Amino acid sequence: MKSESGETVTADAKPWDIRDRTFEFALAIVRLCRALETRSPATGILSRQLLRSGTAIGANVEEAQAGQSRADFISKYAIALKEARETIYWLRLLAASEKAPGSKYGALANEAKEIAKVIGAIIVKTKSRGGR
To answer: What is the CATH number of domain 18-129?
Structure first.
């Protein structure tokens, strides 16, 4: 099945347009952080770190769309990849400290890993073909 942007969409209807996917992921991060914020001072600090990195992924993907050059495009995606990896770290830390709801953590961690793979593939493809 094809999305409006012409990209493939799976049967479970996950958007394969990376901009849509990272936006939906950011919304889920905002919701989780809102729930975590009131638990304890330490959890509040961790949730703010998660909020920063989890929402920065999509912001950098959006910024890449207006890249001034191929190198700028790749650079913005590389930053998005770093933010995805940082987000995975904060999710792992929250889960290990038993501060995050288990099912929410697992779903978000899996999605962050999948997003990181997609972003990595975009970087490799862009580098290999010499253009956007």
So the answer is: 1.20.1440.60
